Amino acid sequence: MGILLYGIVNELDNNILEINGMDGTSKLYSIENSGYYAIVSDVSLEEYGEEAMEVKGEDIEWLKEKAVIFMDIIMKINTITNIIPMKFLTIFNSEKRVNDIIIENSEQFLHNFKRIKDREELSVKIYCDEKKYKEKVMGEEIKKFEESIVGKPKGAAFFLKKKFDTELEDKIQSRIYGIANQVRDNISSLAAEVKSNKILAQEITGISIPMILNSAFLVDHIKEELFSEKIDELRIDYESNGFLIELTGPWPPFSFCE
Amino acid sequence: MGSSSLNQSTSGSTLGEILEKILDKGVVIAGDISIALADVELLTIRIRLVVASIDKAKEMGIDWWESDPNLSSKAKAEKDRQEAQQKDEELKTKLLQEQNKLLMDRLNKLEENIGL
């Protein structure tokens, strides 16, 4: 048997021990050392052993299924108590090894628990339909320009148009990123910490317009509602101009534990 | 949040987000057993594409593999295996094309940024 580690908690609630592990049948259990509880479950080495892992990295269906279950388990624990979540597929050979890593990392755990106490991770992603923004916001400017080249010689009009289009494109880019940053700064005041995450490709998001901002916010429980209200307000301000503001969570504090 | 809500929404942006968090973030402690994962971004795209193609098939009413009892016979199994292999090849080609496109896009963007 291997031991798969989901995360560390500093208060053990019995409800955690009712949750099923990755295999769907064996329950989670804890390995305690100096006030820290490693939440683990047994996994078969046939499926999770060294040899199996060499091919599982290429087994897309398997990875997808397990990834979702793994996240689901940590999310369930997170609704019961604060958890320091581990990276996917952290597996050990013995309880002793888990015990050792608690001792080795206890200072880090202490620091992380201070950081995440009574807080949740919320994710905000902003997408922008640049075409729509252009129509809605720059329409007037475009119209004015088009009027200004009426009657001009063809060649001159062509170059003026080319120059105008390039400048307009730059202007749109700087404005939409400006708005995204403004939104982030605006909601940051309600968060204890903010982290900028990678912009995800459209192939990952599955959303037809590009992502322009991806940030994680560590928010006090008591401010969560305020945070989500603020997002609603910002939606009213910006969504008609082609922005899509997506709020997800609460997530386990994956972005705020190191 | 219960498991059902998660499982229902694992296509699209939620799955992307789950993968982003658990593959790219979380506390890193060297375990005894490790898995060799490719580039997280490309892996996420591959996982999403597989999910999308299954969803698409179901959308089109192609879900025979879930109900047809004949499919369990040995002969069928062999045929399926071959078909699956072919499908896998096709998917791999598609994935490669997708990856290629993504890389080209990125390259183009990079070139744009450095003013080539």
Characteristic terms for this protein:
heterodimer, A: 258 residues, alpha+beta, four-stranded antiparallel sheet, B: 116 residues, mainly alpha, 5 helices, 0% strand
Structure description:
The complex is a heterodimer of chains A (258) and B (116). Chain A is of the alpha+beta class. Chain A contains eight helices and eight strands; from the N terminus they run E-E-E-H-H-H-E-H-E-H-H-E-H-E-H-E. In chain A, strands 2-3-1-4 form a four-stranded antiparallel β-sheet. A four-stranded antiparallel β-sheet of chain A has the order 6-7-5-8. In chain A, helix 5 packs antiparallel against helix 6. Chain B has helices at 3-8, 13-24, 40-59, 64-67, 74-113. In chain B, helix 2 packs antiparallel against helix 3. Classes of the chains: A alpha+beta (258), B mainly alpha (116). The interface between A and B is large, with 58 and 46 residues.
Quick structural overview:
The complex is a heterodimer of chains A (258) and B (116). Chain A has 258 residues and is an alpha+beta fold.
Distance between the termini of chain B: 49 Å
Give me the secondary-structure category of chain A.
alpha+beta
Mean pLDDT of chain B: 72
Radius of gyration of chain A (Å): 25 Å
Specify the oligomeric state.
Answer: heterodimer
Summarize the helices and strands and which ones pair or pack.
The complex is a heterodimer of chains A (258) and B (116).
Chain A: E1 2-9, E2 29-33, E3 36-43, H1 45-48, H2 50-56, H3 60-80, E4 84-92, H4 95-116, E5 119-128, H5 130-148, H6 154-188, E6 193-196, H7 202-205, E7 211-220, H8 224-238, E8 243-251
Antiparallel strand pairs in A: 1-3, 1-4, 2-3, 5-7, 5-8, 6-7
Helix pairs in contact in A: 5-6
Chain B: H1 3-8, H2 13-24, H3 40-59, H4 64-67, H5 74-113
